[in-house]
Design goal:
Blueprint lengths: L8 E5 L3 H12 L3 E5 L3 H20 L5 H9 L1 E4 L10 E4 L5 H14 L5 E4 L6 H5 L8 E6 L8 E6 L5 H13 L3 E6 L6 H17 L5 H12 L5 H8 L1 H15 L8 H8 L16
Parallel strand pairs: 1-2, 1-4, 2-3, 4-5, 5-6, 7-8
Antiparallel strand pairs: 6-7
Bound molecules: 1,4-dihydronicotinamide adenine dinucleotide (NAI).
Length: 287
């Protein structure tokens, strides 16, 4: 695995699904990483997830055992936000709630170094709104990683209204150093990927509800006829129906365009607790 030419100190706030993945990728690229979370349990889960993720790369032959050990040594797990003080890059990946993010950024504004690149991994909140509560909003932007972080190559680099041009350049260089591809876009709901993907997934639910074909048939059709690597309903199960519903609701309320309106079946499935892979059942069954 390629090591970062200018290895630096990175702080990742939030050790959940995304934070752990981002921390893993940063450590594997040669950065020293501090992973911060308010929950000791989340930190422990994050530690296990990173170790498992690095182990997977060793099994696939993409990472040597010595590199794995060195990556693990570059990681620190802590509940103390003040540990962010030494970081040149700060990436926030806490719960997707504006109040939580604003509170975290208020504290981060006090402890982050004056030159640090500041980024949020939000997928549906307004970066411009988060930036309004950041002490140096010109150094702030969105770094939207995709799940699973170690696998998917894209990072949307999102320009908030306040983001400085130099910040975007720094963010792009940082993302390239992780071996990922940055794509710059403006702070608009859904950025690029979710803006295009969510209506497509929602339409698949619509087709299913109308009885156009079975779930299996809809997914096979899109794989065989449109060369999709995964069918839309299986993708919904993977993303989580609750996550997709929240994204559709957010796009719908921001744009007011009916093309983003979640189909009632999607809502009903979420109400029934059929959230996809994570609950063992969505449009398909999982054992
Ligand atoms: P998660 O629920 O797995 O993890 C969030 C973590 O933040 C939890 O461990 C929680 O303890 C921690 N946290 C909450 N408040 C905190 C605070 N004040 N200080 C420090 N840590 C705190 O969430 P997930 O899925 O990792 O999402 C995180 C962010 O990434 C959200 O903004 C989400 O929109 C975004 N995102 C999620 C994707 C996904 O597929 N799950 C994909 C791309 C972005």
């Amino acid at each position: 695995m390629k090591q970062h030419e200018t290895a630096t100190n990175v702080a990742v706030i939030g050790a959940g699904t995304m934070g752990a993945g981002i921390a893993q990728v940063c450590a594997a690229a040669g950065h020293t990483v501090t992973l911060v979370d308010v929950s000791a349990e989340a930190l422990e889960r994050g530690r296990k997830s990173v170790a498992k993720g690095l182990e997977k790369l060793v099994h696939k032959g993409r990472l040597g055992e010595a590199e794995r050990d060195a990556s693990l040594e570059r990681l620190t797990f802590t509940g103390d936000l003040a540990a962010v003080g030494g970081a040149a890059v700060v990436i926030e990946a806490v719960f997707e709630a504006i109040a939580v993010k604003r509170e975290v950024w208020e504290k981060l504004s006090e402890v982050a170094t004056p030159e640090a690149l500041l980024a949020s991994n939000t997928s549906s909140l307004s970066l411009t709104e988060i930036a309004a509560g950041v002490a140096h909003p010109e150094r702030f932007c969105g770094l939207h990683f995709f799940n699973p972080v170690p696998v998917l190559p894209l990072v949307e680099v999102v320009r908030a209204l306040q983001t400085g041009a130099g910040t975007l350049e720094r963010a792009e260089a940082f993302v390239r150093g992780l071996g990922k591809t940055p794509i710059v876009c403006d702070d608009r709901p859904g950025f690029i990927v979710n803006r295009l993907l969510i209506p497509y997934l929602n339409d698949a639910v619509h087709a299913l509800a109308e009885g156009v074909a079975s779930a299996e048939a809809i997914d096979s059709a899109m794989k065989l006829g449109a060369n999709m690597p995964i069918g839309p309903l299986a993708l919904l199960d993977l993303v989580g129906l609750d996550v997709a519903l929240a994204a559709a609701e957010s796009l719908h309320s921001e744009f007011g365009d009916p093309k983003f309106r979640p189909h009632p079946l999607l809502r009903q499935m979420v109400r029934a607790g059929k959230l996809g892979r994570k609950t063992g059942e969505g449009f398909f069954q999982y054992s």
